[in-house]
Amino acid sequence: MTDYVRQLPPHQFVQRKRVSEWVRVDLLSLFLISLIATYGLVILMSAVDQNMARVQAQVIRIIVAFSVMVVMAQIPPRLLLRLAPALYLLGLLLLFLVFLVGTESKGATRWLRIGPIGFQPSELMKLALPMVLAWYFHDRRLPPRPRHVGIATLIIAVPVLLIYPQPDLGTSILVAASGLLVLFLAGISWRYIFSLIGLFLVSAPGLWFVMTDYQRGRILTLIDPERDPLGSGWNIIQSMTAIGSGGLFGKGLFNGTQSQLDFLPESRTDFIIAVLAEELGLIGVLALLSLYICLIGRGVVIAVQAQDTFGRLLAASITFTFFVYVFVNIGMVSALLPVVGVPLPLVSYGGTSMLTLCAGFGILMSVHTHRRITL
Amino acid sequence: MSEPIVLKDHHDESRVFIDRVFMAFACAMLLTLLLAGRMLYLQVIQHDRYATLSESNRIQVQSIPPVRGLIFDRHGELLADNAPSFSLNLVTEQISSLDETLGRVEKRIGLTTEQRSRFERRLRRKQRPFESVPLLHRLSQEDIARISVDQYAMPGVHIEASLVRHYPLSDLVTHAVGSVRRINEDDARDLDKVAYSGTDHVGKTGIERFYESRLLGRVGYQRVETDARGRIMQVLSRTDPVPGENLELTLDAGLQRVASEALGEQRGAIVALDTRTGGILAMVSKPGYDPNPFVTGIDHASYALLRDSIDVPLFNRAVQGQYEPGSTLKPFIGLAGLMMGVTTAEHVIDDPGSFQLPDSERLYRDWNWTREGEGGHGKVDMNRAIYRSCNVYFYGLAVELGIDRIHTHLDRFGFGRNLAHDLPEAGSGLLPSKEWKRSVRNLPWYPGDSVNIGIGQGDVLVTPLQLATAVAILANRGRMIIPHLLKDAELPLRPNVGIPDDAWRVISDAMQDVIHRGRRGLGENGTAWAYIGMDIPYRAAGKSGTAQVVGIAQGEEYDHAELDERLRKHAWFVAYAPAEEPQIAVAVLVENGGGGSEVAAPVARKVLDYQMIGNSTIARRSEYREPTFALAGAHRD
Known about the structure:
The complex is a heterodimer of chains A (about 375) and B (about 625).
Chain A: H1 11-14, H2 19-22, H3 27-47, H4 52-74, H5 77-101, E1 103-105, E2 108-114, E3 117-119, H6 121-138, H7 146-163, H8 169-185, H9 190-210, H10 213-223, H11 232-246, H12 257-260, H13 272-305, H14 309-333, H15 352-369
Antiparallel strand pairs in A: 1-2, 2-3
Helix pairs in contact in A: 3-4, 3-13, 4-15, 5-6, 5-7, 6-7, 6-8, 6-14, 6-15, 7-8, 8-14, 11-13, 13-14, 13-15, 14-15
Chain B: H1 10-45, H2 47-58, E1 59-64, E2 71-72, E3 78-90, H3 98-109, H4 113-124, E4 133-136, H5 141-149, E5 157-166, H6 174-177, E6 180-182, H7 185-190, E7 201-203, H8 206-210, H9 212-216, E8 220-226, E9 232-239, E10 247-248, H10 253-263, E11 268-274, E12 280-286, H11 292-296, H12 300-308, H13 317-320, H14 330-339, E13 349-351, E14 354-355, E15 364-365, E16 378-380, H15 382-387, H16 391-412, H17 434-441, H18 447-454, H19 464-475, H20 501-516, H21 519-522, H22 529-533, E17 541-547, H23 560-567, E18 570-577, E19 584-590, H24 596-612, H25 618-622
Parallel strand pairs in B: 2-10
Antiparallel strand pairs in B: 1-8, 2-3, 3-4, 3-5, 6-7, 8-9, 11-12, 11-19, 13-16, 14-15, 17-18, 18-19
């Protein structure tokens, strides 16, 4: 089933094993992720009013997520390749179950609850979808033929259409992005890409009629936040005010009036970048963006160095999906994009996205550290 | 099985992949630059704007309402003060279910649908989150207790105290002082947003309205840092409000009480003026009403009751009510005759009881005319024409004067004009002229119109205030006064009415004879002698009058007794005292009272007594009974 077998020179087998071969992690990305998470903790400390119980809870989540990352890094990509279709089908099944018996919370049905354990199947899909697509393409000729593109599109569409009505626009965008990225990286022809963009542009006015009032409100709010300044416009007005008032150097950590006086809503989750922008200014934001770019750059290097189709497609998809997170979150908080619920990766308070992201990075590390042994 | 074996071109695949990865990475870099650019735009280019927004978020400029100026009478008695009032306010952000909370409030202290809908209107005008919106005003101590006990169960429900206008004398001075009302949306459009930023009330009538800017004071501010819930974190700076100016009125609350009691339950009005200054000493309009419920918002039912009452208590009869002056106009017509050389004090006419214009069949009757032709006053000169109130004398005089001269003369006394200085509701009355009749009725002036004007009937209309003012000017021998309520009001200068001494003497003597000319003294009594003149311990001058009832609206359904009562003539009495050095002038109107001397004169006497004799003797005066030998004649004039 491997795409090709590599003949390794015998002396590599007798070499003394390095640490990175006992515990297979990519130290550079681990370092960058730790840096971002630490930076995030500092901002979070301000966003939760220095409530140490909350900070502690987040530290525990980070430790758990890092552990998952390390564990994932040990799983050889070959195993993932084998598990991919099963994981995907499991994901679909669970999404379907959410559809039937999901637990409602804050007006959305996203959770499956089995006893005390809550679980969001859409999170599993964030990894299972790129995996199954990488699996699908790994032994097919690339660039893919139209028929394969069609089937891949179907593979993407089914989970997205199951997640979208939960409703969870943010996650369905991220899942769709992770899948479409695989298609793009697999080298589908520009014809498809441009016709997809063209189709989107043509149907954009039509989408308006498909959207719910709530979603229309989000878009109208983006165009003119003042139309309902105390209601739907409040979040975006307050976040732009927080960001803009931060200026070049910020008001100082813990000194942001917008965040400390509770004008900024969701300040520890989706809107945490506004806290950073207010307190540490443009410098603080650029520092975070640089860290993100470094991590993405590392992901790109890992993807390029990967030796098989499965590994490189998966690694690159995970890397760029991470970027979509960053872009959508900062874009929405700074009023470039409508507000969809996407957290700032590795920084926002909460465990779910942290866990999925770290599991993704674990896979990335696994791809990297197992690249030489592909028997 | 049937699928062809696909051979992968690893080299090509890898090249395509690497192309795509770098393309994607380039895209990501571009989009990151876009984000960085957006941040640069917001944080550097637009920084000032958002810094200001952030400050205005954080820093609230809270207005501190000034304390409204108090209003005192001339002796320092409080007419309008400020009392604490408690309101029930809701902060909807702290309430999970508004309906449930409203239900709880309703269960404890009651809540009408009207109060509910008013609250909902106010809720829509809310400016920022966590602003508290008043639900109920003027909570009683019991209401406060009922809410306080269960307040822990009703988060978001707050009791707030504020100072609101309070009128300790209730309905006694309502029409004189006026009142404040809650600012409604219409008011809000016209008012200075800054000056009223902390104030919920504005003067709507009377003194409260006229001196609004002085009573209001200047609003104060404090800059406070608040959180998004509106909680004050710290006070950054404070500018204290400047309280409104206290006003001292010319009004005498004691005299006001006496006047009000003298009028009793009758509908009518009394205006008493200080003839030396024009200051209003008393101003009563009955029925009155308690202005206090209006301050915080009267409920619809109570308001409808006041508004729709046929007694129109909201109407200020003293300054808005326009009535025929009746015979109280006669001294002014007589004075016109003397001043314009149309007649002399000595000129005598023979009164057969009725008057006829040449070439006219119509009989203008005197009040003591009889069908048998035995009435009339016989020989009548100016003096007797006034103290016996002879109509025929003035019919003739008015015709000889003609409307132009009557108009010129009466105009100087303020008839048909509003001379009032600080009474925003004051009316102008109506002084007809040829031009007026031409433009309003499109008819020429007939001599018959002048006949009626001679006895204060026809089209001429006055307010009690106007009549009191005219009497005061007459008492002053023509020196002008401007009626006003504020003690230190800056009054405009208006020309005096030049009254020659001899003419004034004739009229003054005649008006004194109305009261003092008793049977025992001079052989014939004045019209008011029997009612007030017999035991009066000071010299006063006066004149009675009756006014025909003009306005019963067609089609209104009254029962017959009511109709009869309301068709009776209005009784007037005007007076001033002391006769030689006048201090006070008074006009009394009793609606549907009947005879002026009989009904209105005793009321005027009580007002004069208070001023002339003082408080201590009032009790004795109140025991005064009508003399048993009073002449018959219900409609004596």
